[in-house]
Amino acid sequence: MIEDQILHKLEEIVGSANISCEKADKITHSYDATQQSYLPDVVVYAENTAQVVNIVQLANKEKIPILPRGAGSGFTGGTLPVHGGIVLVLTRMNRIIDIDTDNLTAIVEPGVVTGQFQKAVEKLGLFYPPDPASLAFSTLGGNVAECAGGPRCVKYGVTKDYILGLTIVTPTGDVIRTGGRTMKNVVGYDLTKLFVGSEGTLGIATEITLKLIPKPEAKKTMLVYFETIDGAAQAVSNIIKNKIIPTTLEFLDAATIDCVRQGSGLDIPQSCHAILIIEVDGDADILDKQTRKILEIVEPSGVIDTQIAHTHEESEAIWSIRRNVSPSLRKINPDKFNEDIVVPRSKVPDMIRAIEKISKEFNVPIINFGHAGDGNIHVNLMVDLKQNGMKETAHKALDKLFLAVVEMNGSISGEHGIGIAKSPYLSMEVDECTISYMKTIKRIFDPNGIMNPGKIFSQDA
User: pTM score, two decimals?
Assistant: First the structure.
């Protein structure tokens, strides 16, 4: 419990309307997409950097855990207050401070919703490519904390590739500024990249300087049905070997396709065991030529049928297949473990086969889809946690899953981060010496261990 005098000081900093100890508010900020829940002692809403500084300084002085939080949409427990303390909500810091159309940059506060920012810059003919599935509600601050990706990253890269600079409030309450507004900057250590993906454990970003690019003139969407997952994976490799980098290369495996068939009634050929959704963008006059070239490249890989969207509505119809995946999953089982592994593109079929073996061994349905262009597979273990021993069974399956990923020179997380959900598996991928240096960095920035404690490193949880 936080003493009343501390609560009074917090109220003095942010005002009575921006602090709550009500149980309903604490519950609202106690969970994320993992569905795990830990109650904070107090919820505080910050409106500017000065407030964040004062709150962090107080928390550090009193050694109270502090948890920066945006929309709370993460999949690994990164914003869960596992040790109680202060949940510092940043959603009210939601201003787009500047969009510079001459230099193709923008400055935003962390509470700006990703999708709303994209719409704002696109009105000016500009483009912010990172597109996590949660873009309709996730915030740019959260995207920075997790280094969010999305379907377009095969061509355009992930969040870290668009962060030019940050204003950071450190765990001791100092304000530091990293990077700047220029495309080139090699003055000192690259602290910007250090903070991006640090999951709120090293500091709180209160201003973010972003790189923008010109908005592509047009896009074209294709749907390709394959006989096998091997054929789909080979098609992906062949497309890229031919020096074509599509905007997106999304895949669905056989288990996912069966799930979509049952859940949506979409007319998908029974002989289809893999789907690629391919999208290209750029100058309108080259897209038809590029589309024809892609279809020529993939044809020898066991293509059953193809569809090309000629209108926005037809494009949306193709993407509806992908969007029907998540709603269809609950028809299999009520609960799921959602993982986001990454393997080299050429290893995707091997990984799918390994997952199928794990599914059979533990009698757990596993649904796979994701970003074929960069080998990022979203693995969904569908379970009913009301069944005795099911949670333990699921974790045994995850042990084997992550081990197989590492053996294929992959990564246990491509977009979701480590948080608490994957912290027991960190040492599978990262050696102890490297982990030791990571912990040293954490101690330097956060000597009292107050900033989002219990995350990433399992022995601290």
Answer: 0.94
